[in-house]
Amino acid sequence: MNIFRVKSKTSSLFCSFLLLFFCFFLEISAFAQLQTGNQSILTTSLDDLDNDGLKDVTVETDLLRVVISSKTGSPSVYYLKGSNFEENILPSTLQDQGVKLEENFLKPFTADIVGVDFSSGYKIEVEDEQLNSVVIRAIANIPPPKDGQESISLVKRFTFSLKNYFFDAEYIVTNLNDRKTVIGDETNGSVKMSFGPGLFMDPFGPSTLLGLEANGNVQSFSDFTKLNSAGLVAGALNGVGIRDQYFCVLIESAVPQVKVNAVAFDVQGEKDGKKIKHRGHLMNCVLPMFALEPNDSRSLSFKVYAGPMILDELMKVNRPTVSEYGFLSTMLMRILQFFYSLFPNYGLAIILLTIVVRIVLYPLTLKQTKSMAAMQKIAPKVQDLKDRFKDNPQKLNEEILKLYQKNNVNPLGGCLPLLLQLPVLIALYNTIRIAVELRKTPFLWIADLSKGDPLLILPIAIAILMYVTQAKQASVDPQQKQMMAMMPMFMFVITWSLPAGLLVYWFASSVLGILQQYQANRIMAAMKEE
Questions:
Q1: Do β-strands 64-68 and 75-80 pair in parallel, antiparallel, or remain unpaired?
Q2: Is 408 part of a structural domain of the chain?
Q3: Pick from 138, 100, 106, 135: which is nearest to 120 by CA?
Q4: Domain count, the chain
Q5: Last residue in a domain, options 275, 309, 343
């Protein structure tokens, strides 16, 4: 017993030192970000669009390639760089997949004045270009006003930075009339920014609509079935957003009391020769109406984030709650990034992270094993008491309690350590599940850690490890034996479609679990001999 206690204390001290070591390097790991190429100055170029003399502007940074369309005066292409992405958020991937959409809903990213026609296009200019930022100006072409029509000008200014996934969008509205003019109306608002189908790589995958509150919180519109063609007004919000597992688009406004309108509609069409029906969504961020004096202008500003669900990036726009990272997941993600900075392979980083978590939790596992061994040691005496007092339950409970006290056994000692481990293990599982860093990252035979194992090697190995673990746990109950025999097969069914990053963690954790069980069996055998 003394040897056991010395080992337990030594293990606890070692684990505590290890945890402090990784906490010390917590901040260092934040610099282990996605690979996005070499640092370069921000570049812009003008590209011919059509025969009307209008030109698009292409803005290229370290992280993005954005095209400002001269037809809409808004981004028409939004390309994410980096080995984890290398694909467009815009234009609409629904359209690319052969799904026919109504023209009104093909608005992946637009912003206009309600009730004013700017269909004549925009003149795109590079207003200012610095080493780390560029300002693009889109000036609306205003046709001559007809009798009774108002003359309103609109200038859109987009400011992009070298190393950010977010940009500033400013809309300058000017009253060109010789009288006071009301912009918009009470029902529909004034300036409306809309974004809809095709913002993400998998438009048919699950996504969540978000309302962004002024106090920094996030309101989720999770029940899409309650949205109809009339939309849903969220009220006192300052922006809207949409997110899926790895990416999000957030549009925020400094103007208070923004109306948020989420319109749901059915998308019908054909894909691969089959008729499909998809529930699409169009999000509107609408500013209230306002009045302008003659030749007066008003500037309306938005901040837009369109990029991956990287915690450090979301914190730059004060929206860390958009992601699913809690405190434990954040800490584990930092450690994962730290290991990646040392060994630039996320598969290996996951294994090392799993080892660290298992080592840190080992004192709890050891305590649980000790408690189970103690309970197993006095099990014959407990059974003897049950036989002696089977007709007197109250007396039986009293005698069992005395037996526990005499042998310093806590009947809950085997459960409490397990309950303490669960939050950490769940956080680790969640960290690997939502880590965008794993997207398109290879490991051994696996081409993408965010997708399933193509050869099913890991699901089969996990099922075999479960069988080996159960084979060492003797059971005399025939029903329990039958259930244990089916569990490996059931485990294979569960794991065969899970992301490979999770399977790497699961496999490593299972191997470590077997090693810990081997050590536990030695401890239990030593306790029985005493």
A1: antiparallel
A2: yes
A3: 138
A4: 2
A5: 309
Rounded Cα gap, residues 209 and 225, in angstroms: 12
Question: Residue 405: phi, psi to the nearest 5?
Answer: -65, -40
Flag whether 474 is in a domain.
Answer: no
Global pTM reads 0.70
Same domain? For 292 and 401 the reply is no
pLDDT one digit per residue (tens) for the chain, 530 residues: 433 333 344 444 444 444 444 443 443 333 333 333 334 445 666 655 444 557 888 888 888 888 888 888 888 778 888 766 655 555 544 444 444 444 444 455 677 787 787 878 888 888 888 888 888 888 888 766 665 566 888 899 999 988 888 889 898 999 988 889 888 888 778 888 777 655 554 555 566 777 776 666 676 665 444 444 444 554 556 777 777 777 888 888 776 666 766 666 565 655 556 666 666 666 777 788 889 999 899 888 888 888 888 878 877 777 766 776 777 888 888 888 899 989 888 899 989 988 888 888 777 777 777 777 777 778 788 888 887 877 778 888 888 888 877 877 776 665 665 676 678 778 877 787 778 878 778 899 988 888 888 888 988 888 888 887 776 655 545 666 667 677 778 888 888 888 888 889 889 988 888 887 777 777 667 666 65
What is the span of the domain harbouring residue 380?
Answer: 2-32+330-452+498-529
The answer to whether residue 469 sits within a structural domain is: no
CA distance 413 to 472: 22
Domain end: 279, 309, 339, which one? 309
Asked if residue 232 and residue 375 are part of one domain, the reply reads no
Q: Are the beta carbons of 452 and 493 closer than 8 angstroms?
A: no
